[in-house]
């Protein structure tokens, strides 16, 4: 029954895309985030639906879309440069050529689509539709996780998110970071959305989805999610009017929620303070140290999956007993082929210093542009005020994602590049609207040209 439902939904989406080709782009977004081919038993997992969707999206744009307002930006050029650099390290400098090409098979698709996607985002409606599809696709995972957390309490490595597959957004730490990063965008859609105009139904669903997003770090017992929630609380101080009341509400809510949290979650969070005795945290530190040593002699990295060659030796310190009668125990642990557990060290180890600096430049440029737009359109009486608010939401989502990326390897996760594409599309659209507004003022408010292009 689930197979039939997913097939029916995708068939309907593709059918509507024949009339509005941009919907093919949104279909690819849904497939990229939800991966319905991994949820089915017999049908979709034998059909290359991702390839079909991307070919349909590219074909629809090339054949029917109006390209007069499409712009190729510097950030798209930088992403394209990163794509080329990764290709070079994969085919000419990988320490493990076969394993490197396994990761390259999906990384190049994420980067190439990130270069293409902003070309299709010519209108506010398209930018909003992209974000809406990202949020609703993510919600199909988050809502399931939230319900299971409420009924079972979850636990580290125990929360089953529709499929027994610990990859992509179905991995606990990754979905925790991405779910919290989505909250600023959800808040913007609740206030400024036009596809579903804000009313009590939109607000109710939005609040319920935010609650589910906050439950995901609890259900997965992911420490990354707790840190992301903390950053979200700090970033929201920028927009609230009554900050003291907001801080007081956070304190009261925290005091009320902590007793209700499952014991497995609080025990897991306590390891943040006693990381020396936690094997997972100790492994991270050992891998990061190994990566720094590795790039000191391999400054251009070792290609994808270069971590397979690491060999680690680290000490785990455990304190037992009370404060007045404690006993310190140390255990030497060895391990091999442990992943980087950090987007920054992932980039450094695989793509070297050039790849890391290029990736950081792409991210920092996006954050700075969003801050510029947020400040430029911050006045409430500005007709493009919604754009400034959206720039702030995208910036906050990006910052939360980058914090989560410090503790989990998501440097090439497609969700990040879809977020970047929305930033680029918003930037170019607001620049064009501002330029047209100035030209109309000079020409006496006469329209520049009639609009005959359908909204989508």
Notable features of this structure?
456 residues; disordered C terminus; two-stranded antiparallel sheet
Fold blueprint:
Layout: H1 2-17, H2 22-34, H3 49-64, H4 74-92, H5 97-120, H6 124-152, H7 172-181, H8 183-192, H9 200-220, H10 223-235, H11 243-257, H12 263-270, H13 279-297, E1 311-321, E2 326-336, H14 343-376, H15 385-405, H16 414-443
Antiparallel strand pairs: 1-2
Helix pairs in contact: 1-2, 2-3, 2-6, 4-5, 4-14, 5-16, 6-9, 6-16, 7-9, 7-10, 7-15, 8-9, 8-15, 9-10, 10-15, 13-14, 14-15, 14-16, 15-16
3D architecture notes:
The protein has a two-stranded antiparallel sheet. Strand 1 (311-321) and strand 2 form a beta hairpin. Helix 8 (183-192) runs antiparallel to helix 15 (385-405). It has 456 residues and is mostly helical. The protein has 16 helices and two strands. The chain is globular. Mean pLDDT is 85; it is low at 450-455.
User: What is the makeup of the main sheet?
Assistant: 2 strands, antiparallel
- Kindly state the percentage of residues in helix: 55-70%
Radius of gyration: 23 Å
What is the subunit arrangement here? single chain
Which class best fits the helix and strand makeup? mainly alpha
Q: Provide a count of the helices.
A: 16
Cα distance spanning the termini: 32 Å
Overall pLDDT confidence? 85
Strands of the widest sheet, in order across it, are 1-2
Q: Could you name the ranges where pLDDT drops below 50 across 5 or more consecutive residues? A: 450-455
The beta-strand count equals: 2
Strand share of the residues? Answer: under 5%
Order of helices and strands: HHHHHHHHHHHHHEEHHH
Which descriptor suits the 3D outline? globular
């Amino acid at each position: 029954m689930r197979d039939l439902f997913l097939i029916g939904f995708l068939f309907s989406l593709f059918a509507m895309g024949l009339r509005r080709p941009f919907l093919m782009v949104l279909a690819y977004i849904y497939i990229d985030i939800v991966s319905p081919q991994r949820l089915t038993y017999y049908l979709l997992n034998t059909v290359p639906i991702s390839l079909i969707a991307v070919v349909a999206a590219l074909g629809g744009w090339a054949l029917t879309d109006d390209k007069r307002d499409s712009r190729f930006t510097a950030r798209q050029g930088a992403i394209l440069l990163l794509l080329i650099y990764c290709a070079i390290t994969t085919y000419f400098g990988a320490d493990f050529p076969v394993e490197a090409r396994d990761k390259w098979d999906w990384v190049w698709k994420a980067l190439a689509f990130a270069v293409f996607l902003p070309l299709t985002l010519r209108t506010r409606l398209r930018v909003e539709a992209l974000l809406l599809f990202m949020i609703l696709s993510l919600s199909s995972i988050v809502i399931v996780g939230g319900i299971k957390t409420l009924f079972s309490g979850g636990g580290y490595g125990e929360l089953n998110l529709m499929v027994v597959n610990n990859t992509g957004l179905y991995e606990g730490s990754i979905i925790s970071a991405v779910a919290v990063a989505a909250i600023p965008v959800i808040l913007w859609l609740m206030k400024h959305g036009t596809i579903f105009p804000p009313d009590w139904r939109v607000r109710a669903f939005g609040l319920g989805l935010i609650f589910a997003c906050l439950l995901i770090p609890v259900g997965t017992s992911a420490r990354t999610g707790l840190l992301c929630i903390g950053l979200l609380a700090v970033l929201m101080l920028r927009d609230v009017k009554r900050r003291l009341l907001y801080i007081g509400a956070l304190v009261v809510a925290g005091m009320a929620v902590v007793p209700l949290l499952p014991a497995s979650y609080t025990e897991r969070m306590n390891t943040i303070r006693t990381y020396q005795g936690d094997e997972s945290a100790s492994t991270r530190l050992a891998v990061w140290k190994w990566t720094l040593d590795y790039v000191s002699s391999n400054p251009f990295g070792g290609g994808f999956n270069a971590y397979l060659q690491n060999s680690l030796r680290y000490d785990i310190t455990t304190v037992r007993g009370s404060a007045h009668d404690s006993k310190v125990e140390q255990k030497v642990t060895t391990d091999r082929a442990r992943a980087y557990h950090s987007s920054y060290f992932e980039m450094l180890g695989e793509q070297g210093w050039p790849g890391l600096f290029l990736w950081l430049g792409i991210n920092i440029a996006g954050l700075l542009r969003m801050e510029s737009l947020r400040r430029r359109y911050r006045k409430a009486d500005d007709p493009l005020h919604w754009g400034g608010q959206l720039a702030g939401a995208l910036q906050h989502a990006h910052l939360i994602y980058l914090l989560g990326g410090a503790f989990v390897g998501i440097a090439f996760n497609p969700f990040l590049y879809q977020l970047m594409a929305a930033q680029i599309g918003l930037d170019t659209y607001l620049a064009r609207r501002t330029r047209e507004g100035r030209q109309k003022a000079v020409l006496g408010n006469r329209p520049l040209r009639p609009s005959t292009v359908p909204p989508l």
